[in-house]
Amino acid sequence: MLHQNTSSLNGKYKKIISVVPSLTELLYDLGLNEEVVGITKFCIHPEEWFRTKTRIGGTKQLNIEAIRKLNPDLIIANKEENEKDQILELANEFNVFITDIKTLEDALLAIYDIGTLTNKKEEALAINDQIQKEAELLASSPKVINVAYLIWSKPYMTINSDTFIHHLIAMNGWTNVFGDHPDRYPMIEVEALQEKNPDVIFLSSEPFPFAQKHVEELLPYFPKSKIILVDGEMFSWYGSRLRYAFEYFRELQKDIG
């Protein structure tokens, strides 16, 4: 069955599959090494699990038969990162707990819920406490800075306000120049980006692996903008990695000036 709250789930889960990379890392940090039996090919943290756990396809191309062979008693998924039809198919046979995360508050609730489900409530509360303490240390940028955050190349793609990335950008006091776009992940031309005239252009390390050569490609079009390669995991991973995100943002604010 498909579940979006913990009240409809109960029992000790001995065979868990995670189909969300950031939540796979959370399960590791909760101490669920024995219980987790399957992960996706994009679950790169921790490296130990990436090397040793059974991989059941990609986040949007799950290997349903491989999942059936593992016969999990709980699958942890995400509304955005996984394909709806595949999750519904799995929900016909297995318990699927689906998360929907667009804000820090959503992320903290998901961590708490997953901790509750897996009998790791105290560990989840400790992680949340660390995240909240780090978040409280993040001061808003002292001046208005307009930013564009690119997640893909050829075509360039960015994010609107209905995303977790946008929420973290806003927490820094920065303004997402495509926040009001009607599409969650707009495809844009260089000309559209020039019209927005951003002070800073962030090139994310994921899902597209932007590199220095991409900075150099954009420089002629944006001589007055700062173009910065950023760690996409810090902006988009909403599990236990959030413990390190806010220190990263504080350093990034210093770099921007």
Order of helices and strands: EEHEHEHEHEHHEEHEEHEHEHH
Q: Give unreliable regions as ranges.
A: none
**What name goes with the CATH superfamily of the largest domain?**
Nitrogenase molybdenum iron protein domain
Q: How are the strands ordered across the major sheet?
A: 1-6-5-2-3-4
Structural class of the secondary structure composition? alpha/beta
Q: What is the helical fraction, as a range of percent?
A: 25-40%
How many helical elements? 11
Strand percentage, roughly?
A: 15-25%
Number of strands: 12
Reported by name, the CATH topology of the largest domain is Rossmann fold
What Rg, in angstroms, do the CA atoms define? 19 Å
Reported for the largest beta sheet, the result is: 6 strands, parallel
Structure description:
- The protein has 257 residues and is α/β, with parallel strands linked by helices.
- The protein has eleven helices and twelve strands.
- The strands form three sheets. A six-stranded parallel beta sheet has the order 1-6-5-2-3-4, with helices on both faces. Strands 9-7-11-12 form a four-stranded parallel beta sheet, with helices on both faces.
- The longest helix has 16 residues, at 121-136.
- The mean pLDDT is 95.
Helix and strand arrangement:
Blueprint: E1 2-3, E2 16-18, H1 21-29, E3 36-39, H2 47-52, E4 54-55, H3 64-70, E5 74-78, H4 84-91, E6 96-99, H5 104-117, H6 121-136, E7 145-150, E8 156-157, H7 164-171, E9 174-176, E10 187-188, H8 190-196, E11 200-204, H9 212-218, E12 226-230, H10 232-236, H11 242-256
Parallel strand pairs: 1-6, 2-3, 2-5, 3-4, 5-6, 7-9, 7-11, 11-12
Antiparallel strand pairs: 8-10
Helix pairs in contact: 5-6, 6-11
